[in-house]
Specification:
This protein is mostly helical. The chain has one domain. Helix content is about 90%, strand content about 0%. It contains 3 helices and no strands. The chain has helices at about 1-55, 55-60, 70-120. Helix 1 runs antiparallel to helix 3 (about 70-120). It is elongated, with a radius of gyration of 27 Å. The two termini are about 50 Å apart.
Length: about 120
């Protein structure tokens, strides 16, 4: 019976040590590994959105006539349509980039805001 009690105390001590370690390690993880992973996720998100919008493809083919119409009117219409498309898709990419930057900065500020909120409620 005494061996079981010692084992139980040892497991409780290990559990308490693990909980304290996780609590103290959290800020270090949040501002290092966590922030790096979140940044990589945002980069992958922006890459996927760029591929979805096809912004670079529209930009690369700005002077290529659409539907193979090589006369002046066909080239001019194709150019103007592509300029409008590039502006619209560029604006969408800019909005997504600003959103990603906001989220990246918000990631850093979130623990501070939580601590502030807790302290504000205690005062």
């Amino acid at each position: 019976m005494e061996i079981m009690a010692k084992s139980s105390v040892l497991k409780s001590t290990q559990l308490a040590t693990q909980i304290i370690w996780e609590f103290l390690y959290f800020p270090i993880w949040w501002y290092s590994v966590g922030w790096w992973r979140f940044g990589r996720f945002l980069y992958a998100f922006l890459s996927w959105q760029q591929a979805s919008l096809g912004f670079y493809t529209w930009l690369k083919n700005i002077f290529v006539p659409m539907y193979g119409q090589t006369d002046f009117a066909g080239r001019m219409i194709s150019f103007l349509i592509r300029v409008v498309q590039i502006m619209a898709r560029g604006l969408a990419m800019l909005i997504l980039l600003l959103l990603a930057l906001f989220l990246f900065i918000f990631w850093a500020a979130l623990p501070l805001l939580v601590v502030y909120g807790i302290l504000f409620q205690l005062i």
